[in-house]
Specification:
- It is a single chain.
- It is built from 37 helices and 22 strands.
- The protein is of the alpha+beta class.
- Among the domains are: 58 residues; 192 residues, Rossmann fold (3-Layer(aba) Sandwich), CATH 3.40.50.300; 88 residues, Arc Repressor Mutant, subunit A (Orthogonal Bundle), CATH 1.10.10; 109 residues, Transcription Elongation Factor S-II, Chain A, CATH 1.20.930; 219 residues, paralog of FGE (formylglycine-generating enzyme), CATH 3.90.1580.10.
- It has a 6-stranded mixed beta sheet, sandwiched between helices. Strands 12-13-16-22-17 form a 5-stranded antiparallel beta sheet. A 4-stranded mixed beta sheet has the order 20-19-18-21.
Length: 1000
């Protein structure tokens, strides 16, 4: 048993040792695992190995192995097992470590490889970037060079187009001169702030906003000072809008010219006539089309790049040349879109006033500044005439054989100055006032200079001016050069007139295709001169007469729109009875497209044509309600007509089926005709006692105004009795029988003091003072009113006025003691402005001092005439004006506006405000806006100077009522304005009060 166990242990030990050696290279001496006796026996057996039979002694030795030896062997075996397990664990850990090292080494090598690949990729990308950047720079350089070339071509074409003009419209002998040589800076009135008059601070209202602005100042204020993107410029036909746009473009093309316009960096100008714009395309595409018409080979992409990356000024000329309202609306929407999208662009838009009427709901959403071109002032007329004649004489001839260049130049300049002075002197004649006003229109002044130079002719009206100028252009200029015209002027007119009416009626466009024009001319030319070909005639009209021009490659256009309108009107004179044209003229009455042609028609219409139109007009629903602009047009037609029978107007007046409006419009026409026959007809109407009392009252008022002014009492009472008996009204003969209406005294809650105040009885003028009334005052100062000058000599009046003004040093300083200077100092600053100087329009552009002098003049004349010491004409105090506008507490709650509360908020039937008309209107036009007592124009039209200071500081005088250019808030009975008494504004006027004392 023991031997067997030993053998097993020995075998197991040897096996373990062999396993350790095989597995780990760890050699273990196996004898170390045996008991000592067995270990010695094992050692002995290894020395001599001999086969022999077992001996008895061996058995006894084996038996000698004890239990202890077995235990030791087991322990030794266990140690081997533990060592084996340890070795196994060690090997496993070693293997994991090795694997980790290998893995780390692999990852390291992989990372190195990736980094190397990334480095190589980055180097490649960098190389590609360098190559791409180089290629891009090369491409950009080529593009820049191309763009520079394109811009150079564009600038050259633009400068050619805008920096030269013809000496007239068209010019003298078609000689182009530099724009800068003949350009006279226009004056513009800027209305952006006048719309917010009441919101201005006191200093803002006293800064002299009335001053005329130069083109540079208007643009600078619009874009730099106000930060607007759009400037809207409104002007009448021939007022110089297109020339102004070309002037802006010219400045932008000049070195540092942009600085004069308020820009800090150079700007690239783009000039586009709006008749060439297609709103379905982008601005860049429209500009590219403009360029292609001029063979410039500039792409839309080029223009787009400039518009996106450059500071640009986009000049859009002639909104009114889009004949249809829907087209103009689309253009306005198109402009609004461009203002939003093109961040670095600024826009200027021009139009006739008829092209931007508020009643057509034609508006621009883009916040903009609104400016209006003013007529030439006297000084500007003189400047223009001298420049024009100087350029004309220097360009129209060359030195004589015996003359040197200097001698010739000196002679030409002397002749130019003489001609300019002759025209200036002619215009200053008192009998030429109407022509002097027309000469404020630049184009008409050019035509006047043209025919003066050639004929020394003196036309007295616009139509006559066109007649002479066009005859010269069509025939006489060629005859003076011994050239035979293609057609004589009379025959040429017979061609141009039907063509113009055809374009007006059927095409409704300013341009016409050349082939279509030639085809239309053939049957017209055949009976006149069959030898003349349409192509040759059009070439003559274009190249010699200068009346038409090429419009692109395939169209013609009249060089100035008014030429076509003139010829269309002339044709109507001959054919108005055909094709129901009178009815069509009535239907289109007031439309922008027809307004000027209709005026030219009336300027040559005979009595039959006048009656036919008026009868059809008042028979039409068109006459039931007219806008203020339509009323102005109707009166303009009446004034321009050479023959004016009363039949159709009186028929309307006596027809009880006509509305009150229609009868009032007929009365306005009769007033415009004037004269004894009208007064007698109105007297007969008033005596009939039929129809509306209000219409008969208007007829009586017109009768009174048509009476010759005489200093006779108009009421059978003396002045002291005036405020004792208090008749409901009286008329002042000095003011062409102006009516004064009694306002009963009472109490009001005064908006200034917030207290209940008492107001005495007072007479208020029914209307603000008109130009007709105020001009009589100025003529009196000029000693041109014999009856008045005899009653009160101007020197005596001057002494009285100076004595009155002595209480106010500023007033005395303003007047000065040189009474000869007073007419010029005191006259309306808008007396020569056609928009404001109508006889029945309220006088505007006067200072407080001038208004107060007028009132003092009335008082002085009254006292000299009847020694009525207790009657005083003066300006109303604010509390008196507020009583007149808002009513008395005795009558109930104050009115918000001058008209009865039930009529509601302001609208176009109640007042002239908010630029709805664009100028002042004749007094009394808004009958619906009258106060319950019958005062007219208490809201809108003009601000009215008040007698009192606006505050205790005594720096500014008060103003009330709002004006044509103000928002509706200023029409309220409590709304206040203020300004320094020395200032005037285009919307400052006044109304006279008649009181028994100077103060309340």
């Amino acid at each position: 048993m023991m031997r067997s166990t030993k053998s097993y242990l020995t075998i197991l030990s040897l096996g373990l040792c062999a396993l350790c050696e095989a597995s780990f290279g760890w050699r273990q001496d196996s004898t170390q695992l045996l008991p000592p006796a067995a270990r010695q026996a094992e050692l002995d057996s290894t020395v001599v190995v001999k086969p022999s039979a077992p001996q008895n002694g061996a058995a006894s030795q084996d038996d000698a192995l004890t239990t202890k030896d077995l235990i030791n062997s087991g322990i030794a075996l266990l140690s081997v097992l533990i060592a084996l397990v340890t070795a196994l664990l060690y090997r496993r850990l070693a293997r994991k470590k090795k694997e980790a090292e290998l893995r780390a080494e692999h990852e390291f090598k992989q990372r190195i490889a990736l980094e190397e690949n990334a480095r190589k990729a980055e180097e490649r990308r960098a190389q590609l970037r360098v190559e791409h950047e180089f290629a891009r720079q090369q491409e950009q350089h080529a593009h820049v060079q191309k763009a520079k070339t394109a811009e150079a071509r564009y600038r050259h074409a633009l400068e050619t187009e805008v920096c030269q003009i013809h000496l007239a419209a068209p010019g003298v002998d078609e000689v182009p001169v530099g724009l800068v040589d003949t350009f006279v800076r226009l004056n513009l009135s800027e209305h952006y702030r006048s719309e917010e008059f009441s919101q201005l601070g006191e200093l803002g209202r006293m800064r002299g906003e009335h001053e005329d602005l130069s083109p540079e100042e208007v643009l600078t204020r619009a874009f730099r000072d106000y930060g607007r993107k759009l400037l809207l410029i409104i002007g009448d036909p021939g007022s110089g809008k297109t020339t102004l746009m070309k002037y802006y473009a010219m400045l932008c093309c000049q070195d540092e010219g942009y600085l004069a316009l308020g820009f800090e960096q150079p700007v690239l100008p783009f000039y586009l006539p709006l008749r060439e714009v297609d709103p379905a395309q982008s601005l860049a595409e429209n500009l590219a089309h403009w360029a292609s018409e001029r063979e410039l080979a500039i792409t839309a992409e080029d223009f787009h790049t400039w518009l996106q990356n450059r500071d640009t000024l986009v000049l859009l000329d002639g909104l009114d040349e889009k004949s249809k309202l829907e087209e103009r609306k689309k253009i306005c929407e198109w402009i609004d879109g461009k203002c939003v999208g093109l961040k670095r662009s600024r826009f200027i838009l021009t139009s006739r006033s008829t092209g931007m009427r508020s009643r057509d709901n034609l508006t621009l959403r883009t916040p903009h500044v609104h400016a209006e071109v003013r007529d030439f002032s006297t000084e500007q007329k003189h400047e223009f005439l001298r420049k024009w004649f100087r350029a004309a004489f220097l360009e129209s001839s060359r030195p004589l054989k015996h003359e040197s260049e200097a001698e010739w130049r000196e002679r030409q300049l002397r002749e130019a100055e003489k001609n300019a002075q002759d025209v200036i002197d002619y215009l200053e004649h008192k009998e030429n006032r109407s022509l002097r006003e027309l000469a404020g229109i630049p184009m008409l002044l050019q035509l006047l200079a043209l025919i003066w130079k050639k004929h020394k002719t003196r036309p007295e009206s616009r139509t006559k001016l066109y007649d002479i100028a066009l005859d010269y252009l069509l025939e006489y200029r060629d005859e003076q050069r011994h050239l035979a015209p293609v057609l004589k002027a009379e025959k040429a007119r017979r061609v141009l007139a039907p063509v113009s009416l055809w374009m007006q009626e059927e095409l409704a466009a300013d341009e016409v295709a050349k082939e279509r024009m030639h085809d239309y001319l053939k049957p017209i030319l055949e009976p006149l001169d069959s030898a003349v070909q349409p192509e040759a005639l059009c070439a003559n009209f274009r190249d010699r007469a200068g009346l038409i021009a090429d419009y692109g490659r395939n169209d013609y256009i009249f060089r100035h729109k008014s030429f076509r309108e003139y010829f269309a009107g002339m044709q109507l004179v001959h054919v108005y009875e055909e094709k129901q044209r009178v009815q069509r003229l009535v239907e289109t009455f007031g439309e922008t497209w027809w307004a000027e042609a209709l005026r030219y028609f009336f300027s040559k219409a005979n009595g039959k044509a006048f009656t036919a139109f008026m009868a059809a007009f008042f028979a039409s629903d068109k006459s039931r309600e007219l806008t203020s602009e339509q009323q102005d047009l109707l009166l303009a037609l009446v004034r321009e007509a050479p023959e004016r029978p009363l039949d159709a107007l009186l028929a309307c007046l006596h027809d009880q089926n006509k509305t009150a409006n229609q009868q009032r419009y007929a009365l306005d026409c009769l007033k415009a005709i004037g004269g004894e026959r009208v007064r007698e007809a109105l007297h007969a109407f008033a005596e009939e006692r039929r129809g509306l009392d209000s219409i008969r009252d208007i007829a009586r008022e017109i009768m009174a105004q048509l009476e010759a002014p005489m200093l006779k009492p108009t009421i059978p009472i003396t002045a002291p009795a005036l405020f004792e008996q208090l008749p409901p009204s009286f008329r002042n003969p000095v003011e062409y029988n102006a009516e004064y209406i009694l306002l009963r005294g009472g109490t009001i809650k005064f908006s200034v003091t917030k207290k209940v105040e008492k107001v005495p009885d007072l007479y208020f003028a029914k209307y603000p003072v008109t130009n007709k009334q105020y001009r009589r005052f100025i003529r009196y100062l000029q000693e041109e009113e014999p009856e008045l000058n005899n009653r009160l000599a101007p020197p005596a009046f001057a002494e009285k006025l100076l004595e009155f003004a002595s209480a106010d040093k500023a007033y005395l300083y303003y007047l000065s003691r040189d009474r000869k200077a007073w007419p010029e100092k005191l006259k309306s600053k808008r007396d020569n402005d056609r928009r404001f100087n109508g006889e029945d329009q309220p006088v505007a552009g006067v200072t407080w001092y001038a208004a107060r002098a007028y009132c003092f003049w009335l008082t002085a004349l009254q006292r000299e005439t009847s020694n009525q010491q207790q009657v005083l004409y003066r300006l109303p105090h604010e509390i008196e004006w507020e009583r007149a506008a808002a009513g008395r507490l005795e009558e109930g709650s104050p009115r918000k506006y001058p008209w009865p509360n039930e009529k509601g908020e302001p609208n176009e039937k109640l007042a002239n405000y908010g630029h709805k008309v664009g100028q002042t209107t004749p007094v009394g036009r808004y009958t619906e806006g009258a106060t319950p007592e019958g005062l007219m124009d208490m809201a809108g039209n003009v601000w009215e100077w008040q007698e009192n200071w606006s505050s205790e500081r005594k720096e500014a005088r008060a103003l009330r009522g709002g004006s044509w250019s103000n928002t509706s808030g200023n029409l309220r009975g409590v709304a206040r304005g203020l300004n320094a008494p020395v200032n005037w504004n285009f919307n400052f006027g006044f109304r006279v009060a008649c009181a028994s004392s100077p103060i309340i």
